[in-house]
Amino acid sequence: MSSFSPASVLAFAGPESARSVTVKAAPTAAAVGRLRIGIVCNPKSHLNHGAEYEAGVPGVDSVLLAAPGTRAALADTLAEFAERKIDLLVIDGGDGTVRDVLTCAAHLWKGKWPDIAVIPSGKTNALAIDLGIPSGWTLADALAAVTRGRRVERRPVEIARDDGSRPLRGFLFGAGAFVKATELAQHTHRAGAFNGVAVGLALGWALIQTMFGGATSSWRVGTPLGLKLPGGSVDPRPRYLLLASALRQLPLGLKPFGQPRDGMKLLVVDAPPKRLMLTVPALLAGSEADWMRRAGYHHIDTASFEVSLDDGFILDGEHFAGGKLAVRQGPVLSFIAP
């Protein structure tokens, strides 16, 4: 996780499937040079590229560069970008950086957002993997992709509370065992494992804890979740796991939501989880067989749901307090793709 913290100073420099991919008339190099570009560079990201931008971006006339160290500074940065009517928003960071940018900017571009280019420099870069962005992707690569006119549309998950606070926006929401597994992933980051390696290690350790823990193990008894789907009533049963995302591809090729498709997808696993040795390989390979549903593994497509939980939840790697939450699809965003 590499979200914004009070560690750095704000600085400016210089004035899915075929259905989700659109190809516009490709801009010429001269047209790209006239784009107004705003770059948010997380100073705490694992592979930060900020120093590379300080001399300017060759071939581009108007660039705003910011390295905000707090979420408040990030909000000010994005307000400046919106006022200057940028054409391209570049996010240099990991999944946590993307989450913070989309959350802080939610009220700024209520109509059409600028195109977004992600430079994957965080410890986890699930969104970049889903977009087909390779490791080592640079701003120069993104600008070259602009000239090819390829865009991929994705909708973030939006989490709203009933207290009127600003909704969160991210791409992978999880509760139950996912909270514990994410904490394990943070330990693997400190040990030097990132991206798919960290996911694999955390997943393996979580399965060991679940399979070999006793009947009263916190991994097996589940988390009380009040889950309510549209048109239904609240189901208060304890759940082992709840995941929600609109991503199509996840790290390591894992397919817990079933076969890749558009829209928000849920995976809900009842507690205690049954037949793990048999279900886990099938689940991660994308199976949605009826026998899995009967065993308590539920795949659900929905544009929204409500959930009440006390133990908190994870959104793109960061732990947030629980409560009564309304979870829905966010706006359609257009990302530059290779």
Strand content: 25-35%
Question: Could you name the CATH topology of the largest domain?
Answer: Tumour Suppressor Smad4
- The radius of gyration computed from the alpha-carbon positions, rounded to a whole number of angstroms, is 20 Å
Low-confidence stretches: 4-23, 188-197
| Domains, number | 2
How would a textbook summarize the main sheet? 11 strands, antiparallel
Helix-strand makeup class: alpha+beta
How do the SSEs run, as a string of H and E? EHEHEHEHEHHEEEEHHHEEEHHEEEEEE
Give me the CATH architecture of the largest domain, please: Sandwich
Which CATH C-level class of the largest domain is it? Mainly Beta
Number of contiguous helices: 11
Termini separation (Å)? 25 Å
- Helix percent reads 25-40%
Number of β-strand runs: 18
Globular, elongated, flat, extended or rod-shaped: what is the shape? elongated
pLDDT averaged residue by residue: 82
InterPro entries: ATP-NAD_kinase_N, Diacylglycerol_kinase_cat_dom, NAD/diacylglycerol_kinase_sf
Protein name: DAGKc domain-containing protein
Domain DAGKc: 85-167
Organism: Sphingomonas mollis
Give the topology.
Layout (H helix, E strand, L loop, with lengths): L20 E3 L5 H5 L2 E6 L8 H4 L8 E5 L4 H13 L4 E6 L1 H10 L10 E6 L5 H6 L7 H10 L1 E5 L2 E5 L6 E3 L2 E4 H14 L4 H18 L5 H4 L1 E6 L9 E8 L19 E6 L5 H9 L5 H5 L2 E5 L2 E6 L3 E3 L2 E3 L2 E7 L3 E4 L2
Parallel strand pairs: 2-3, 2-4, 4-5
Antiparallel strand pairs: 1-6, 6-18, 7-8, 7-17, 9-11, 9-15, 10-11, 10-14, 11-12, 12-13, 14-17, 15-16
Helix pairs in contact: 7-8
Pfam family, one: DAGK_cat
InterPro entries: ATP-NAD_kinase_N (IPR017438), Diacylglycerol_kinase_cat_dom (IPR001206), NAD/diacylglycerol_kinase_sf (IPR016064)
Protein name: DAGKc domain-containing protein
